[in-house]
């Protein structure tokens, strides 16, 4: 490697390490917030979705007016109006919007887990005489069905727990980012 290439790589590493460090610190803050304040985090996520709906609605209306839709101008206009109304609804009642959103996600997750559990049990029954792994499939299916029932019985608690799991994962990933940032810094100093 030439001196010019080494200098360019050192510059990239020198500039990259602190960005990764800041991202790691931000991820730790968000992860801790998600773990200790999961309801607030859920409302925040829904509000970000509300901002997206408002912006997307405005852009759809602009594309309908200018004719740059790639399709029907009326559909783009109606879609834009719908998105703006959805964004307004989210901001007018963020708690209700968060509850509806989390309930939908939890019920959807429960449905897929339930179907997967039933499929695992059916597969175990089909393989009953031919496979040594039938018990694993059977246990996995039963656990899946139990998990689906828990999700359906208590969607709010399920959403809180899932948000806390996301918080723990974010903190773990953030710690690895911070370790990598200092590793990049050390590498930049040795080049």
Description:
- The chain is mostly helical.
- It has one domain.
- Helix content is 90%, strand content 0%.
- The protein contains six helices and no strands.
- It has helices spanning 3-36, 38-66, 73-92, 94-126, 134-153, 155-190.
- α4 (94-126) packs across α6 (155-190).
- How would you characterize the largest beta sheet? none
What is the residue-mean pLDDT, rounded to a whole number?
Answer: 86
- Residue windows where pLDDT falls under 50 for at least 5 positions: none
How far is the first residue's CA from the last residue's CA?
11 Å
Task: Give the amount of beta strand, in percent.
Answer: under 5%
Radius of gyration: 24 Å
Number of domains: 1
Assembly type: single chain
Count helical runs.
6
Helix content: over 70%
List the secondary-structure elements in sequence, H or E: HHHHHH
Determine the structural class based on helices, strands and strand pairing: mainly alpha
Total count of strands: 0
Shape: extended
Short description:
With 191 residues, the chain is mainly α. The chain has helices at 3-36, 38-66, 73-92, 94-126, 134-153, 155-190. The chain has one domain (3-190).
Secondary structure layout plus pairing:
Blueprint: H1 3-36, H2 38-66, H3 73-92, H4 94-126, H5 134-153, H6 155-190
